[in-house]
Recover the amino acids of this structure.
């Protein structure tokens, strides 16, 4: 899933001994992969960039609790997944509360449906429709699916990243697959 | 073997299927058809999703991230402290024991010296009180200088402490506990020696050390913020610095007194 820099442990020792600047090497090394997974979960460039920063900050603060036998790349990756999930959850809550507070927001959403599945199908935007189907998954399902397929994580790694038991992680991936297949079935027939 | 469920097929797709699933698929046309459909669906979905790659980051992305966050990171001192703490604790205990011995020695020396001056009458008691405790006073001044030095270091660390880093807070609490006992002794000494300025500063310090040392349930962000505010409003760090800077002067005065010079 991730490459572990050979020098990560030595770098961490240096940081814990007071060499703050050494953390820069870890940031430079791991930022791109963190951005990728954050983008896949949040689906948003700006959010993904903030997730990367937040994850690396959290990582630095918790560095003293990092176990030397662990893989820093995997560890910080998990933190980034959690940060991304938190961000998506808070965004969803914000959107829900906005809709709840202002009934006119519903109308805006209805207007969005003009660019819904039918129109996208007609204009051949299959990828966009599939992206829409992906957005219909719950956060856990979507993240489990993304980690499984796009990041190549095993069931156990997904479970650790999501903070759930391995069986629940498997179920989340399975539900995601089922939902995606169901939502994309009409599209395949017409295509 | 029973037919494979959809969940079994999905697991098999990921290479984590139950034992014998592959053999069953090669023998069961129905399950093989279902599996082929699943493969086709997943491949189609993945091809589309993978076509949407994350936006490219340039080679300097990591460096930009680092630059944006570097200033916000506190420097770790934990690893250095972990072994230093043991040494510091050992040294602190030895230091406290040595101080107690010196104080006791000074006390007895004072008593013996006083007894030798028995012929003095009641009218000479006041000058005797000035001169008798001098050895003790000198010891107290030396030790007080060190106490103020340590207190100042603690206050500086407390001023810059981050409540999120419990690893950085715990040593402060331990140090406060060590200093608290010594501070009370010096406070009593200052009151006896009729030094209200020192006594007041040590009283302020005493309050803060007691709060820091005995914070129930550890030091959370709120408690830390309160202590930092108290410290600021009392101008405690400033007071301690002033007193510490005057410790050598005080010592010189005591030495001069000892050698019979005038103040």
């Amino acid at each position: 899933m991730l490459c572990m820099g050979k020098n990560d442990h030595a770098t961490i020792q240096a940081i814990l001994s007071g060499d703050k600047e050494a953390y820069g090497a870890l940031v430079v090394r791991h930022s791109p992969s963190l951005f990728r997974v954050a983008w896949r979960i949040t689906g948003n460039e700006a959010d993904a960039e903030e997730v990367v920063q937040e994850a690396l900050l959290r990582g630095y603060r918790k560095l003293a609790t990092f176990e030397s036998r662990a893989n820093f790349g995997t560890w910080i990756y998990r933190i980034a997944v959690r940060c991304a999930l938190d961000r998506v959850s808070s965004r969803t809550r914000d959107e829900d509360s906005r809709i709840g507070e202002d009934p006119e927001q519903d109308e805006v959403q209805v207007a969005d449906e003009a660019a819904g599945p039918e129109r996208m199908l007609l204009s051949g935007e299959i990828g966009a429709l599939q992206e829409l189907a992906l957005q219909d998954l719950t956060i856990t399902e979507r993240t489990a699916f993304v980690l499984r397929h796009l990041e190549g994580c095993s069931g156990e790694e997904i479970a650790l990243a999501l903070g759930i038991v391995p069986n629940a992680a498997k179920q989340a991936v399975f539900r995601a697959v089922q939902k995606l297949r169901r939502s994309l079935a009409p599209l395949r027939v017409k295509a | 073997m029973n037919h494979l469920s959809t969940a079994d097929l999905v697991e098999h797709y990921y290479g984590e299927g139950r034992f014998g699933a592959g053999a069953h698929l090669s023998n069961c046309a129905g399950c093989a058809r279902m599996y082929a459909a699943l493969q086709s669906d997943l491949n189609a979905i993945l091809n589309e999703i993978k076509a949407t790659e994350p936006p490219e980051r340039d080679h300097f992305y990591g460096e930009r991230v680092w630059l944006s966050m570097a200033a916000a990171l506190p420097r770790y001192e934990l690893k250095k402290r972990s072994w230093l703490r043991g040494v510091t604790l050992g040294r602190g205990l030895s230091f406290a024991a040595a101080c107690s011995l010196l104080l006791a020695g000074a006390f007895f020396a004072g008593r013996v010296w006083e007894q030798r001056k028995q012929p003095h009458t009641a009218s000479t008691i006041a000058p005797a009180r000035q001169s008798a405790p001098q050895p003790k006073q000198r010891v107290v001044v030396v030790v007080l200088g060190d106490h103020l030095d340590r207190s100042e270091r603690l206050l500086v660390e407390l001023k810059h402490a981050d409540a999120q880093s419990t690893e950085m807070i715990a040593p402060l609490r331990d140090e406060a506990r060590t200093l608290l006992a010594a501070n009370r002794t010096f406070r009593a000494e200052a009151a006896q020696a009729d030094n209200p300025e020192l006594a007041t500063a040590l009283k302020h310090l005493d309050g803060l050390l007691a709060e820091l040392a005995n914070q129930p349930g550890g030091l959370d962000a709120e408690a830390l913020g309160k202590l930092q505010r108290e410290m600021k409003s009392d101008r405690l760090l400033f007071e301690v610095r002033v007193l510490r800077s005057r410790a050598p002067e005080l010592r010189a005065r005591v030495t001069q007194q000892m050698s019979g010079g005038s103040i």
